[in-house]
């Protein structure tokens, strides 16, 4: 995932746990992933020896996030990995790891976007590994990651006493290569956090707004992730 001309100090990694728990990881030193594929050899028929053709299957990504030894970056990532508010964080156990979404933005020396990445449904897969000079590394796996030449926007919405069904985006959305105007919609209620809403069932979306099937009430929140200029 090497990209030229990125200024590491100005680039950022945002971790999304729920509609309320999301934010940039401070002291993030590096972020990378590799795609996994497997090849299946299909034998030929009667009278044919050897392999007739090979099929390749995409099997998600594996990656790492490295942070300096600073407390804030490490604890933010580990708290969000367990869907816990940073104020309530007491420690990390791998059995508590839950799904995360990563938004990475790489910019150049002039703060112009070079590339952006969206990693979906990632899971931290190992206890933090201590590296040299106090740095810490986290391994993750995810079923899908995508790279873009456009910026990634994150909008957050809060409910009201009169439930909101129409949520207006702050920017005009651009469909991603999979054809989605909105790449992610998460909802928090007082009883359940980080519910992944389904297009067509829970909401519809245009390039300017999201229309919820069930209105957003007081105490509820929605977070949306999408591409835009």
Describe this structure in words.
- 5% of the residues lie in helices and 50% in strands.
- The model has no long low-confidence stretch (mean pLDDT 89).
- The protein is mainly beta.
- The protein has one helix spanning 71-81; strands at residues 12-16, 22-24, 28-43, 51-67, 100-107, 113-124, 129-130, 136-142, 144-148, 151-158, 164-168, 184-188, 195-196, 203-205, 209-216, 221-228.
- It contains one helix and 16 strands.
- Strands 1, 2, 3, 4, 5, 6, 7, 8 and 9 form a nine-stranded antiparallel beta sheet that branches. Strands 10-16-12-13 form a four-stranded antiparallel beta sheet, with no helix packed on it.
Summarize the structure.
With 229 residues, the protein is mainly β. It has one helix and 16 strands. The strands form three sheets. Strands 1, 2, 3, 4, 5, 6, 7, 8 and 9 form a nine-stranded antiparallel β-sheet that branches.
């Amino acid at each position: 995932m090497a990209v030229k001309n990125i200024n590491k100090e100005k680039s950022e990694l945002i971790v999304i746990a729920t509609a309320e728990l999301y934010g940039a990881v401070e002291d993030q030193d590096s972020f990378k992933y590799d795609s996994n594929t497997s090849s299946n050899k299909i034998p030929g028929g009667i009278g044919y020896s050897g392999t007739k053709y090979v099929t390749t299957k995409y099997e998600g990504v594996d990656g790492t996030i490295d942070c300096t030894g600073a407390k804030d970056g490490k604890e933010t990532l580990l708290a969000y990995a367990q869907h816990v508010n940073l104020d309530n964080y007491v420690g990390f156990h791998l059995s508590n790891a839950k799904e995360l979404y990563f938004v990475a933005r790489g910019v150049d020396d002039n703060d112009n976007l070079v590339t952006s990445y969206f990693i979906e449904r990632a899971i931290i897969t190992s206890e933090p590994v201590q590296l040299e000079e106090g740095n810490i590394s986290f391994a993750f796996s995810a079923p899908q990651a995508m790279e873009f030449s456009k910026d990634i926007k994150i909008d957050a919405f809060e409910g009201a006493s009169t439930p909101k069904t129409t949520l207006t985006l702050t920017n005009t959305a651009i469909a991603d290569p999979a054809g989605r105007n909105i790449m992610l919609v998460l909802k928090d209620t007082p009883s359940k956090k980080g519910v992944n809403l389904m297009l067509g069932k829970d909401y519809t979306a245009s390039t300017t707004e999201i229309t919820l099937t069930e209105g957003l009430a007081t105490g509820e929140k929605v977070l949306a992730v999408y591409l835009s200029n």
